[in-house]
Amino acid sequence: MTKTITLGQFIIEKQADFPYAKGELSRLLRDIGIAAKIVNREVNKAGLVGILGDNGTTNVQGEGQKKLDVYADEQFISALRSGGECCVVASEEHDDCIFINSEISQNAKYIVCIDPLDGSSNIDVNVSVGTIFSIYRRTAVNGPVQPSEILQKGTQQVAAGYVIYGSSTMLVYTTGKGVNGFTLDPSIGEFCLSHPNMQIPRIGTIYSINEGNYIKFPQGVKDYIKYCQVEDGATLRPFTSRYIGSMVADVHRNLIKGGVFLYPTTSSHTQGKLRLMYECNPLALIIEQAGGKATDGFRRILEIQPEDLHQRTPIFIGNIEMVEKVEEFVQLSE
Ligand code: AHG
Ligand code: MN
Ligand code: MN
Ligand code: MN
């Protein structure tokens, strides 16, 4: 019987990895874990607590907000406010950053970018959804937080992670020293280490893309999709197509089984649909830390210099070999 290691114990054990952090990052990760448990409780009984359906409001993305989008956003922001380690929150659900200027947060060093509820279209049909978070350290030592401190490249993340509210609820995160997965044990209300040192399989045979957009894709992406469907035993094709519609769930499946997730530009989303700061950057850091790759077809996602909080980017993310094959097709048809 292996020893149960909770998220809290693990974070403290890994504390030694951060000479400069005197427990602040540990406490911040703990605060996120607490909010994840609260959101999980509502997700698990969404149909019983009147939290399904539309909230009747629209967010800066022009998306109709679901009640659970708003609920999750409130829970994570509340946990970050009361935890005292976070000075700014950038959320998918808010046009502008939220500056936390409380007594308890006056020396807070961390900036959190968050997608509180990823995969909103799946909430009402009981399909896995998630939360995605990205953590940066302030670049100035004091004074008001400047925009440049918030719009940092993905390479500057000090931590990144996601929660997947699925058949079980998992929290997966990295602080730049590997990826570890924790499964929520409802009987003790703790996230327990279940997937230590996660590595994406070197070979993948799953491609994940919304083929309903086929006609709107760039030619290189169309060619790649056709490539996936050709019979060729030597390269394990035809590949399997799997698309859940929650980025967290699609990327998590590929992290475990191998595969590539593609959300390219389309004629209706000319910059791509997925957001750099709180979807692509955190998941790119995780996948790179797990031995995979994440690009926009031409450059590393983590190297993109953000210009706007809600900017979008095309993304191809998964095991190196499959992502590089996509890049080949995309660059060939440029
Ligand atoms: P969110 O629910 O946070 O707005 O994100 C939804 C995203 C992502 O989770 C998913 O991969 C993608 O939207 C699905 O988009 P399509 O429905 O256009 O395929
Ligand atoms: Mn949304
Ligand atoms: Mn999302
Ligand atoms: Mn969302």
How would you describe this structure in keywords?
FBPase_C_dom; binds 2,5-anhydro-1,6-di-O-phosphono-D-glucitol; metal-binding; 8-stranded mixed sheet; binds manganese (II) ion; alpha+beta; 334 residues; carbohydrate metabolism; single chain
Description:
The chain has 334 residues and is an alpha+beta fold. The protein is built from eight helices and 15 strands. The protein has an eight-stranded mixed β-sheet, sandwiched between helices. It has a five-stranded mixed β-sheet with strand order 12-11-13-15-14, with helices on both faces. β11 (206-208), α5 and β12 form a beta-alpha-beta unit. The chain is globular and about 60 Å long. It starts with 6 loop residues before the first helix and ends with a helix. It binds 2,5-anhydro-1,6-di-O-phosphono-D-glucitol and manganese (II) ion (MN) (3 copies). One manganese (II) ion is lined by residues 115, 118, 247, 279. Residues 61, 63, 92, 120 line the site of one manganese (II) ion (MN).
- The helix count comes to 8
N to C succession of SSEs = HHEEHEEEEHEEEEEHEHEHEEH
Question: What ligand species are in this complex?
Answer: 2,5-anhydro-1,6-di-O-phosphono-D-glucitol, manganese (II) ion
- Proportion of residues in β-strands: 15-25%
- Summarize the biggest pleated sheet: 8 strands, mixed
EC number: 3.1.3.11
Family: Belongs to the FBPase class 1 family.
Binding site for Mg(2+) 2: 115, 118, 279
Subunit structure: Homotetramer.
